[in-house]
Fold this sequence. Notes:
Number of helices: 4
Order of helices and strands: HHHH
Number of domains: 2
Strand content: under 5%
Helix content: over 70%
Structural class: mainly alpha
Shape: rod-shaped
Amino acid sequence: MSAAAILRDLAGLCATSAKQCTDAYFKLGPQPAEGPAANLWRLQRSRLQRQVSSLDALNIELGAAAIASALEEHAADLRAISEASQEAQEQIKKIKDATELLTKVARVIELGSAIVAAAALPNAATIAAAINAARTLLDPAEE
């Protein structure tokens, strides 16, 4: 069992104990009038209130320690995820660069095809296609 699990179980035990103290507090009933019974009732109420406060504080501390322990136990995994994410970002950038290069090659081929078409069959449509292909190659934002 991991340290985080043990701490989590202890925090749960504190929470259960605090609930039992709270239940005992409510079972005290109304305060007796005066005398030894009233003094005993006040002492028991005070003790139960302190126990609930202490157990709640301990529960919070143990819960925080469990979280810290779990993070520590998985620190290597978290670093590996971070490194994998970094590598994935680098691969995405390489893919983007390759895509841009292939797009430029496609535009050059398109321009070459348009020039060959204009040379083989010179008319307004083929010449306009060649001019548009050249513009697209030189300024891709106009697409």
